[in-house]
Specification:
By secondary structure, the protein is an alpha/beta fold. Helix content is 27%, strand content 29%.
Length: 481
Protein backbone atom coordinates (compact mmCIF):
# COMPACT_ATOMS: atom_id res chain seq x y z
CA UNK A 1 0.00 0.00 0.00
CA UNK A 2 1.93 3.01 -1.28
CA UNK A 3 -0.87 5.56 -1.62
CA UNK A 4 -4.13 6.47 0.07
CA UNK A 5 -5.96 5.41 -3.08
CA UNK A 6 -4.70 1.84 -2.60
CA UNK A 7 -6.74 1.68 0.61
CA UNK A 8 -9.78 3.06 -1.20
CA UNK A 9 -9.47 0.24 -3.74
CA UNK A 10 -9.06 -2.32 -0.96
CA UNK A 11 -12.21 -1.22 0.89
CA UNK A 12 -14.17 -1.02 -2.38
CA UNK A 13 -13.37 -4.70 -2.82
CA UNK A 14 -13.72 -5.94 0.77
CA UNK A 15 -16.55 -3.72 2.10
CA UNK A 16 -18.18 -2.33 -1.07
CA UNK A 17 -21.49 -1.36 0.58
CA UNK A 18 -19.91 0.43 3.55
CA UNK A 19 -20.67 4.17 3.48
CA UNK A 20 -17.46 6.06 2.72
CA UNK A 21 -18.62 9.68 2.57
CA UNK A 22 -21.71 11.69 3.39
CA UNK A 23 -22.29 15.31 2.47
CA UNK A 24 -24.96 17.59 3.90
CA UNK A 25 -26.46 19.11 0.76
CA UNK A 26 -28.04 22.56 0.50
CA UNK A 27 -31.12 21.15 -1.23
CA UNK A 28 -33.16 18.05 -0.26
CA UNK A 29 -32.85 14.96 -2.43
CA UNK A 30 -35.78 13.36 -4.26
CA UNK A 31 -36.38 11.13 -1.25
CA UNK A 32 -36.59 14.20 0.99
CA UNK A 33 -33.27 13.54 2.73
CA UNK A 34 -30.60 16.19 2.94
CA UNK A 35 -27.68 13.80 2.92
CA UNK A 36 -25.91 12.61 -0.20
CA UNK A 37 -23.72 9.59 0.31
CA UNK A 38 -21.47 7.16 -1.52
CA UNK A 39 -20.44 3.68 -0.55
CA UNK A 40 -16.79 2.68 -0.91
CA UNK A 41 -17.60 0.94 -4.19
CA UNK A 42 -19.43 4.00 -5.55
CA UNK A 43 -16.70 6.40 -4.43
CA UNK A 44 -14.00 4.24 -5.97
CA UNK A 45 -15.86 4.06 -9.27
CA UNK A 46 -16.27 7.84 -9.37
CA UNK A 47 -12.60 8.40 -8.55
CA UNK A 48 -11.53 5.95 -11.26
CA UNK A 49 -13.81 7.62 -13.81
CA UNK A 50 -12.46 11.09 -12.99
CA UNK A 51 -8.85 9.83 -13.00
CA UNK A 52 -9.36 8.41 -16.47
CA UNK A 53 -10.66 11.81 -17.64
CA UNK A 54 -7.51 13.44 -16.27
CA UNK A 55 -5.16 10.93 -17.88
CA UNK A 56 -3.89 11.58 -21.42
CA UNK A 57 -2.99 7.91 -22.00
CA UNK A 58 -5.84 5.56 -21.11
CA UNK A 59 -5.13 2.14 -19.58
CA UNK A 60 -5.48 -0.90 -21.86
CA UNK A 61 -9.01 -2.19 -22.38
CA UNK A 62 -10.13 -4.40 -19.54
CA UNK A 63 -7.45 -3.15 -17.15
CA UNK A 64 -8.82 -1.74 -13.92
CA UNK A 65 -7.91 1.88 -13.32
CA UNK A 66 -6.54 1.35 -9.84
CA UNK A 67 -2.83 2.02 -10.21
CA UNK A 68 -0.73 4.93 -11.48
CA UNK A 69 -1.01 5.11 -15.26
CA UNK A 70 1.92 4.26 -17.47
CA UNK A 71 3.80 7.26 -18.74
CA UNK A 72 5.55 10.32 -17.45
CA UNK A 73 4.99 12.17 -14.20
CA UNK A 74 2.15 14.69 -14.68
CA UNK A 75 3.19 17.42 -12.28
CA UNK A 76 0.86 19.40 -10.02
CA UNK A 77 -2.82 20.11 -10.74
CA UNK A 78 -4.45 23.03 -8.87
CA UNK A 79 -8.20 23.04 -8.19
CA UNK A 80 -10.69 24.94 -6.07
CA UNK A 81 -11.65 23.19 -2.88
CA UNK A 82 -15.25 22.68 -1.82
CA UNK A 83 -17.06 21.17 1.14
CA UNK A 84 -18.47 18.37 -0.95
CA UNK A 85 -18.00 14.84 -2.20
CA UNK A 86 -16.68 16.38 -5.41
CA UNK A 87 -13.61 17.55 -3.51
CA UNK A 88 -12.82 14.02 -2.38
CA UNK A 89 -13.30 12.66 -5.91
CA UNK A 90 -11.08 15.31 -7.51
CA UNK A 91 -8.40 15.07 -4.83
CA UNK A 92 -8.03 11.29 -5.03
CA UNK A 93 -8.48 11.15 -8.81
CA UNK A 94 -5.54 13.53 -9.32
CA UNK A 95 -3.37 11.18 -7.27
CA UNK A 96 -4.65 8.17 -9.17
CA UNK A 97 -3.92 9.90 -12.48
CA UNK A 98 -0.26 10.15 -11.52
CA UNK A 99 -0.21 13.82 -10.51
CA UNK A 100 -0.02 15.87 -7.33
CA UNK A 101 -3.02 17.80 -6.00
CA UNK A 102 -2.93 21.49 -5.07
CA UNK A 103 -6.29 22.31 -3.43
CA UNK A 104 -6.83 26.07 -3.20
CA UNK A 105 -9.42 28.18 -1.41
CA UNK A 106 -12.86 27.88 -2.98
CA UNK A 107 -13.23 31.67 -3.23
CA UNK A 108 -9.75 32.42 -4.50
CA UNK A 109 -9.75 35.09 -7.23
CA UNK A 110 -9.27 34.09 -10.85
CA UNK A 111 -6.12 36.21 -10.98
CA UNK A 112 -4.57 34.48 -7.98
CA UNK A 113 -5.62 31.02 -9.24
CA UNK A 114 -3.97 31.67 -12.61
CA UNK A 115 -0.85 32.99 -10.86
CA UNK A 116 -0.52 29.80 -8.82
CA UNK A 117 -1.25 27.61 -11.84
CA UNK A 118 1.58 29.30 -13.77
CA UNK A 119 3.90 28.90 -10.81
CA UNK A 120 3.15 25.19 -10.48
CA UNK A 121 3.58 24.62 -14.22
CA UNK A 122 7.00 26.30 -14.14
CA UNK A 123 8.30 24.73 -10.93
CA UNK A 124 9.38 21.07 -10.95
CA UNK A 125 8.57 18.93 -7.91
CA UNK A 126 9.84 15.43 -7.14
CA UNK A 127 8.02 12.51 -8.71
CA UNK A 128 5.99 10.87 -5.96
CA UNK A 129 4.73 14.18 -4.61
CA UNK A 130 1.14 13.82 -3.45
CA UNK A 131 0.11 17.36 -2.49
CA UNK A 132 1.21 20.96 -2.63
CA UNK A 133 -0.57 22.90 0.12
CA UNK A 134 -0.31 26.67 0.13
CA UNK A 135 0.25 28.02 3.60
CA UNK A 136 1.85 31.03 5.22
CA UNK A 137 4.07 28.62 7.16
CA UNK A 138 6.26 29.60 10.05
CA UNK A 139 7.42 32.88 8.54
CA UNK A 140 4.03 34.17 7.45
CA UNK A 141 4.99 34.33 3.76
CA UNK A 142 2.88 32.40 1.29
CA UNK A 143 4.62 29.18 0.23
CA UNK A 144 3.66 25.91 -1.37
CA UNK A 145 4.47 23.01 0.94
CA UNK A 146 5.44 19.84 -0.94
CA UNK A 147 4.16 16.61 0.62
CA UNK A 148 4.83 13.05 -0.53
CA UNK A 149 2.55 10.01 -0.51
CA UNK A 150 4.82 8.60 2.19
CA UNK A 151 4.13 11.67 4.33
CA UNK A 152 0.36 11.26 3.97
CA UNK A 153 0.45 7.61 5.04
CA UNK A 154 2.76 8.37 7.98
CA UNK A 155 0.43 11.14 9.17
CA UNK A 156 -2.56 8.81 8.81
CA UNK A 157 -0.88 6.10 10.87
CA UNK A 158 0.06 8.67 13.53
CA UNK A 159 -3.58 9.67 13.92
CA UNK A 160 -4.84 6.08 13.89
CA UNK A 161 -2.34 5.04 16.55
CA UNK A 162 -2.54 8.22 18.64
CA UNK A 163 -6.29 8.87 18.61
CA UNK A 164 -7.88 5.52 17.98
CA UNK A 165 -9.46 5.87 14.55
CA UNK A 166 -11.45 2.71 13.82
CA UNK A 167 -13.60 1.52 10.88
CA UNK A 168 -16.70 2.34 12.96
CA UNK A 169 -15.95 6.05 13.32
CA UNK A 170 -18.00 8.74 11.55
CA UNK A 171 -15.66 11.72 11.29
CA UNK A 172 -17.38 15.09 10.87
CA UNK A 173 -15.44 17.57 8.71
CA UNK A 174 -16.25 21.17 9.63
CA UNK A 175 -13.22 23.03 8.29
CA UNK A 176 -11.86 23.91 4.83
CA UNK A 177 -10.43 20.90 3.06
CA UNK A 178 -7.52 22.81 1.52
CA UNK A 179 -6.13 23.28 5.05
CA UNK A 180 -4.23 20.45 6.74
CA UNK A 181 -6.39 20.61 9.87
CA UNK A 182 -9.34 19.00 8.04
CA UNK A 183 -7.58 17.50 5.03
CA UNK A 184 -5.41 15.32 7.26
CA UNK A 185 -8.53 13.65 8.71
CA UNK A 186 -9.47 12.25 5.33
CA UNK A 187 -6.31 10.15 5.39
CA UNK A 188 -6.93 7.95 8.48
CA UNK A 189 -10.63 7.65 7.66
CA UNK A 190 -9.94 6.22 4.19
CA UNK A 191 -7.07 4.07 5.48
CA UNK A 192 -9.34 2.50 8.11
CA UNK A 193 -12.43 2.24 5.91
CA UNK A 194 -14.43 4.54 8.19
CA UNK A 195 -16.98 7.21 7.20
CA UNK A 196 -16.52 10.91 6.44
CA UNK A 197 -19.35 13.38 6.98
CA UNK A 198 -18.57 16.69 5.22
CA UNK A 199 -20.36 19.86 6.35
CA UNK A 200 -20.22 23.42 5.06
CA UNK A 201 -18.42 24.64 8.17
CA UNK A 202 -19.41 26.14 11.49
CA UNK A 203 -21.19 29.23 10.18
CA UNK A 204 -24.39 27.21 10.52
CA UNK A 205 -24.13 25.38 13.85
CA UNK A 206 -27.36 23.53 13.07
CA UNK A 207 -25.56 21.64 10.31
CA UNK A 208 -22.97 20.38 12.80
CA UNK A 209 -25.66 18.85 15.00
CA UNK A 210 -27.43 17.42 11.94
CA UNK A 211 -24.24 15.52 11.22
CA UNK A 212 -24.24 14.09 14.74
CA UNK A 213 -27.77 12.76 14.12
CA UNK A 214 -26.61 10.67 11.17
CA UNK A 215 -26.97 6.95 11.92
CA UNK A 216 -25.30 4.59 9.44
CA UNK A 217 -24.65 1.97 12.13
CA UNK A 218 -24.86 1.53 15.89
CA UNK A 219 -22.03 0.16 18.01
CA UNK A 220 -20.81 0.85 21.54
CA UNK A 221 -18.15 3.51 21.97
CA UNK A 222 -14.72 2.58 23.34
CA UNK A 223 -15.48 4.91 26.27
CA UNK A 224 -18.52 2.87 27.20
CA UNK A 225 -21.20 5.22 25.84
CA UNK A 226 -23.97 4.00 23.58
CA UNK A 227 -24.72 4.95 19.98
CA UNK A 228 -22.68 5.81 16.91
CA UNK A 229 -19.02 6.74 17.38
CA UNK A 230 -18.57 10.27 16.09
CA UNK A 231 -15.37 12.28 15.99
CA UNK A 232 -14.44 15.74 14.72
CA UNK A 233 -11.74 18.38 14.50
CA UNK A 234 -12.62 21.93 15.60
CA UNK A 235 -10.41 24.98 15.99
CA UNK A 236 -10.63 26.68 19.41
CA UNK A 237 -12.83 29.50 18.06
CA UNK A 238 -15.46 26.98 16.89
CA UNK A 239 -15.38 25.24 20.25
CA UNK A 240 -15.98 28.56 21.98
CA UNK A 241 -19.00 29.23 19.73
CA UNK A 242 -20.49 25.86 20.70
CA UNK A 243 -19.85 26.44 24.40
CA UNK A 244 -21.31 29.95 24.34
CA UNK A 245 -24.38 29.45 22.17
CA UNK A 246 -25.11 25.69 22.15
CA UNK A 247 -23.82 24.54 25.53
CA UNK A 248 -26.74 22.36 26.58
CA UNK A 249 -27.30 20.95 23.13
CA UNK A 250 -23.66 19.90 22.83
CA UNK A 251 -23.96 18.22 26.23
CA UNK A 252 -26.92 16.20 24.95
CA UNK A 253 -24.61 14.54 22.40
CA UNK A 254 -22.00 13.57 24.99
CA UNK A 255 -22.72 9.84 24.64
CA UNK A 256 -22.26 9.96 20.84
CA UNK A 257 -18.96 11.84 20.53
CA UNK A 258 -16.05 9.43 20.81
CA UNK A 259 -13.28 12.00 20.46
CA UNK A 260 -12.81 15.64 19.56
CA UNK A 261 -9.51 17.08 18.40
CA UNK A 262 -8.40 20.69 18.43
CA UNK A 263 -5.22 22.33 17.27
CA UNK A 264 -3.87 25.04 14.95
CA UNK A 265 -4.12 27.67 17.72
CA UNK A 266 -3.86 27.79 21.53
CA UNK A 267 -7.02 26.92 23.47
CA UNK A 268 -7.96 28.87 26.57
CA UNK A 269 -7.73 26.97 29.86
CA UNK A 270 -11.30 27.95 30.79
CA UNK A 271 -12.65 26.53 27.50
CA UNK A 272 -10.71 23.30 28.00
CA UNK A 273 -12.12 22.86 31.51
CA UNK A 274 -15.67 23.63 30.40
CA UNK A 275 -15.47 21.21 27.47
CA UNK A 276 -14.33 18.49 29.87
CA UNK A 277 -17.45 19.13 31.95
CA UNK A 278 -19.76 19.13 28.92
CA UNK A 279 -18.24 15.98 27.38
CA UNK A 280 -17.03 14.00 30.42
CA UNK A 281 -16.56 10.67 28.59
CA UNK A 282 -15.15 12.05 25.34
CA UNK A 283 -11.46 11.93 24.52
CA UNK A 284 -10.42 15.55 23.97
CA UNK A 285 -7.17 15.90 22.04
CA UNK A 286 -4.87 18.88 21.70
CA UNK A 287 -2.52 18.22 18.78
CA UNK A 288 0.75 19.74 17.65
CA UNK A 289 0.93 19.76 13.86
CA UNK A 290 1.62 21.97 10.89
CA UNK A 291 1.71 21.60 7.13
CA UNK A 292 5.50 21.58 7.19
CA UNK A 293 5.94 19.10 10.05
CA UNK A 294 2.89 16.88 9.68
CA UNK A 295 1.12 15.40 12.72
CA UNK A 296 3.64 15.28 15.59
CA UNK A 297 2.08 14.94 19.06
CA UNK A 298 -1.36 14.69 20.64
CA UNK A 299 -2.64 14.89 24.22
CA UNK A 300 -5.98 13.88 25.74
CA UNK A 301 -6.57 16.71 28.22
CA UNK A 302 -9.79 15.09 29.47
CA UNK A 303 -7.63 12.88 31.67
CA UNK A 304 -8.19 14.65 34.97
CA UNK A 305 -5.22 17.00 34.54
CA UNK A 306 -6.36 19.34 31.73
CA UNK A 307 -3.02 21.04 31.23
CA UNK A 308 -3.13 24.09 28.94
CA UNK A 309 -0.18 24.19 26.58
CA UNK A 310 0.51 20.47 26.93
CA UNK A 311 0.61 18.72 23.55
CA UNK A 312 1.60 15.20 24.52
CA UNK A 313 4.30 12.80 23.41
CA UNK A 314 5.58 12.23 19.87
CA UNK A 315 3.41 9.92 17.82
CA UNK A 316 4.35 6.69 16.03
CA UNK A 317 6.23 8.26 13.11
CA UNK A 318 7.41 11.48 14.78
CA UNK A 319 10.36 12.59 16.85
CA UNK A 320 11.19 15.97 18.31
CA UNK A 321 13.73 17.82 20.39
CA UNK A 322 14.30 21.36 21.62
CA UNK A 323 17.16 23.31 20.05
CA UNK A 324 19.66 25.15 22.27
CA UNK A 325 17.77 28.35 21.39
CA UNK A 326 14.52 26.86 22.71
CA UNK A 327 12.76 26.11 19.42
CA UNK A 328 10.79 22.93 18.71
CA UNK A 329 12.47 20.77 16.06
CA UNK A 330 10.66 17.86 14.40
CA UNK A 331 11.95 14.74 12.66
CA UNK A 332 10.54 11.73 10.85
CA UNK A 333 8.65 10.76 7.67
CA UNK A 334 5.82 13.23 8.34
CA UNK A 335 8.03 16.19 7.37
CA UNK A 336 7.45 18.05 4.12
CA UNK A 337 9.75 17.51 1.14
CA UNK A 338 10.36 21.24 0.75
CA UNK A 339 8.83 24.53 -0.36
CA UNK A 340 7.65 25.88 -3.68
CA UNK A 341 8.08 29.65 -4.29
CA UNK A 342 9.81 30.32 -0.98
CA UNK A 343 11.76 33.57 -0.76
CA UNK A 344 15.42 33.22 -1.73
CA UNK A 345 17.39 31.59 1.07
CA UNK A 346 14.27 29.96 2.56
CA UNK A 347 13.62 27.31 -0.10
CA UNK A 348 13.78 24.53 2.48
CA UNK A 349 13.86 25.16 6.19
CA UNK A 350 14.97 21.59 6.75
CA UNK A 351 18.53 21.38 8.04
CA UNK A 352 21.01 18.72 9.08
CA UNK A 353 21.42 18.93 12.82
CA UNK A 354 22.55 16.52 15.51
CA UNK A 355 19.98 16.05 18.30
CA UNK A 356 21.11 15.25 21.85
CA UNK A 357 21.24 11.53 21.12
CA UNK A 358 24.03 12.13 18.66
CA UNK A 359 22.01 10.81 15.73
CA UNK A 360 22.36 13.02 12.66
CA UNK A 361 19.08 13.39 10.77
CA UNK A 362 17.21 16.07 8.89
CA UNK A 363 15.03 18.17 11.16
CA UNK A 364 12.55 20.96 10.63
CA UNK A 365 13.14 23.75 13.13
CA UNK A 366 9.87 25.55 13.78
CA UNK A 367 9.30 29.11 15.00
CA UNK A 368 7.58 27.70 18.11
CA UNK A 369 9.23 27.78 21.50
CA UNK A 370 8.59 24.93 23.90
CA UNK A 371 9.98 22.44 26.37
CA UNK A 372 9.74 18.71 27.08
CA UNK A 373 8.88 17.74 30.65
CA UNK A 374 10.14 14.78 32.68
CA UNK A 375 7.37 12.57 31.27
CA UNK A 376 8.38 13.31 27.69
CA UNK A 377 5.41 15.62 27.09
CA UNK A 378 5.78 18.61 24.78
CA UNK A 379 4.64 22.00 26.13
CA UNK A 380 4.16 24.99 23.84
CA UNK A 381 5.38 28.39 25.06
CA UNK A 382 4.50 30.52 22.04
CA UNK A 383 5.81 31.75 18.68
CA UNK A 384 8.87 33.81 18.07
CA UNK A 385 7.84 35.83 15.02
CA UNK A 386 5.27 38.38 13.95
CA UNK A 387 2.94 35.93 12.27
CA UNK A 388 -0.62 36.12 13.58
CA UNK A 389 -2.38 32.79 14.12
CA UNK A 390 -6.15 33.13 13.70
CA UNK A 391 -8.39 30.06 13.74
CA UNK A 392 -5.54 27.84 12.61
CA UNK A 393 -4.52 30.09 9.71
CA UNK A 394 -1.21 31.92 9.89
CA UNK A 395 -1.40 35.46 8.53
CA UNK A 396 1.48 37.79 7.67
CA UNK A 397 0.30 41.23 8.87
CA UNK A 398 2.49 42.91 6.27
CA UNK A 399 0.36 41.41 3.49
CA UNK A 400 -2.81 42.92 4.95
CA UNK A 401 -1.10 46.26 5.55
CA UNK A 402 0.33 46.43 2.05
CA UNK A 403 -3.12 46.02 0.49
CA UNK A 404 -4.75 48.49 2.90
CA UNK A 405 -2.08 51.09 2.18
CA UNK A 406 -2.97 50.96 -1.51
CA UNK A 407 -6.26 52.69 -0.63
CA UNK A 408 -5.76 56.41 -1.36
CA UNK A 409 -7.53 57.52 1.85
CA UNK A 410 -5.34 55.36 4.13
CA UNK A 411 -2.29 57.24 5.40
CA UNK A 412 -0.94 54.54 7.69
CA UNK A 413 -2.06 51.29 9.30
CA UNK A 414 -1.04 48.28 11.35
CA UNK A 415 -2.60 44.83 11.49
CA UNK A 416 -2.64 43.26 14.96
CA UNK A 417 -4.27 40.40 16.85
CA UNK A 418 -7.16 41.35 19.13
CA UNK A 419 -9.78 39.73 21.33
CA UNK A 420 -13.13 39.04 19.67
CA UNK A 421 -16.34 38.11 21.57
CA UNK A 422 -17.09 35.19 19.20
CA UNK A 423 -13.93 34.25 17.33
CA UNK A 424 -11.75 34.62 20.43
CA UNK A 425 -8.74 35.84 18.46
CA UNK A 426 -9.16 37.94 15.34
CA UNK A 427 -7.32 40.31 13.04
CA UNK A 428 -7.77 44.01 13.76
CA UNK A 429 -6.70 46.83 11.47
CA UNK A 430 -5.77 50.16 13.04
CA UNK A 431 -6.05 52.86 10.40
CA UNK A 432 -4.79 56.43 10.10
CA UNK A 433 -6.86 58.29 7.50
CA UNK A 434 -5.59 61.04 5.28
CA UNK A 435 -6.65 64.56 6.23
CA UNK A 436 -10.31 65.15 5.42
CA UNK A 437 -11.05 61.50 4.53
CA UNK A 438 -13.98 59.73 6.16
CA UNK A 439 -13.30 56.44 7.97
CA UNK A 440 -15.64 53.74 6.61
CA UNK A 441 -14.75 50.25 7.81
CA UNK A 442 -17.14 48.56 5.38
CA UNK A 443 -15.40 50.16 2.40
CA UNK A 444 -11.99 49.07 3.70
CA UNK A 445 -13.22 45.53 4.42
CA UNK A 446 -14.74 45.15 0.95
CA UNK A 447 -11.52 46.37 -0.62
CA UNK A 448 -9.42 43.88 1.34
CA UNK A 449 -11.83 41.04 0.63
CA UNK A 450 -11.49 41.62 -3.12
CA UNK A 451 -7.71 41.21 -2.91
CA UNK A 452 -7.06 38.75 -0.08
CA UNK A 453 -8.11 35.25 0.93
CA UNK A 454 -11.08 35.44 3.30
CA UNK A 455 -9.15 34.36 6.42
CA UNK A 456 -6.75 37.29 5.93
CA UNK A 457 -9.48 39.95 6.03
CA UNK A 458 -9.68 41.60 9.48
CA UNK A 459 -12.92 41.33 11.46
CA UNK A 460 -12.22 44.47 13.50
CA UNK A 461 -11.35 48.04 12.42
CA UNK A 462 -10.50 51.18 14.34
CA UNK A 463 -9.45 54.68 13.33
CA UNK A 464 -6.42 55.98 15.23
CA UNK A 465 -4.42 59.19 15.13
CA UNK A 466 -1.12 57.38 14.61
CA UNK A 467 0.45 53.93 14.70
CA UNK A 468 3.43 53.10 16.89
CA UNK A 469 6.78 52.98 15.14
CA UNK A 470 10.36 52.46 16.25
CA UNK A 471 13.02 55.13 16.02
CA UNK A 472 14.02 53.97 12.53
CA UNK A 473 10.46 54.07 11.20
CA UNK A 474 9.55 50.38 11.45
CA UNK A 475 6.20 49.34 12.87
CA UNK A 476 6.56 48.68 16.59
CA UNK A 477 4.61 45.44 16.64
CA UNK A 478 5.75 44.48 20.13
CA UNK A 479 3.87 47.46 21.57
CA UNK A 480 0.60 45.96 20.36
CA UNK A 481 1.11 42.49 21.86
Amino acid sequence: MNRLEDYLALHAQETPEKIAVVCNQQEPTVAGRREKQYSYEELYQRVCQRAEELTPSKPPRGEAFCSPPRGSWRGVIPFRSSQSIDFLVEYMAIHMAGAAAAPLEHDISEERFDEIARLLAATPVPEGTADVLFTTGTTGRSKGVIMSHRTILADAENLIDGQGFTPDIVFVISGPLNHIGSLSKIWPVIMQGATLYITNGMKNVEEFFTALDYTPHKKPLPSGGAGVGFATFLVPASIRILLQFSHDRLASYASKIDFLETGAAPMMQSDMEELCRVLPHTRLYNTYASTETGIITTYDYNNGKCQAGCLGRPMKHARLFITPEGFIACQGPTLMTGYINAPKGEEVQSVQISPPSGESEGAFITADRGFIDDEGMLHLLGRDDDTINVGGFKVAPTEVEDIAMSLPDVADCVCIAADHPIAGRALKLLVVMTEGAVFDKRTIARYLKSRLESYKVPLLYEQVERVNRTYNGKLDRKSYR
